[in-house]
Design goal:
GO terms for molecular function: DNA binding. Pfam families: HxlR. Keywords: DNA-binding, Transcription, Transcription regulation. With about 120 residues, the chain is mainly alpha-helical. The chain has a domain of about 80 residues: Arc Repressor Mutant, subunit A, CATH 1.10.10. It has seven helices and two strands. A two-stranded antiparallel sheet has the order 1-2. The relative contact order is 0.11.
């Protein structure tokens, strides 16, 4: 049985935010869904390194957390699309702000992260 390493505190806003955004690709996926990539295959193409299983798993988690809705079209082959809910859309200003922060501090972040990422690849 899975046991949490970090206790969950539903009274803390940061814990709640971490719970819904925790996942390597979720922030990117929310951004791409907001900008027109609604199908899982489109998202996977934009997320270099993300497997189909991980994309599906994180979409399911975001659907459970009511950040996205899933629409299944009765077609052959089956067609599935995801769209942001109002709750998911409310995260877009935060995601935009985090992107601007990354851009503003890009030289420093590249300097400190590049050696660490190179170690991961070795």
């Amino acid at each position: 049985m899975y046991e949490r390493k970090i206790p969950f505190n539903p009274e803390c806003g940061l814990h709640l935010l971490r719970e819904v955004l925790l996942g390597k690709w979720k922030i990117d996926m929310l951004y791409y869904i907001a900008h027109g990539s609604h199908r899982p295959s489109q998202l996977q193409k934009k997320l270099a390194g993300a497997t189909r299983r991980v994309v599906q798993l994180q979409l399911k988690q975001m659907e459970t957390h009511e950040l996205v809705t899933k629409t299944v079209f009765a077609e052959v082959p089956l067609k599935v699309e995801y769209h942001l809910t109002a709750l998911g859309e409310s995260l877009l200003p935060l995601i935009d702000m985090m992107g601007r922060w990354g851009d503003a501090h890009k030289p420093q972040l590249q300097r400190v992260l590049t050696p660490l990422l190179a170690e991961d690849d070795a």
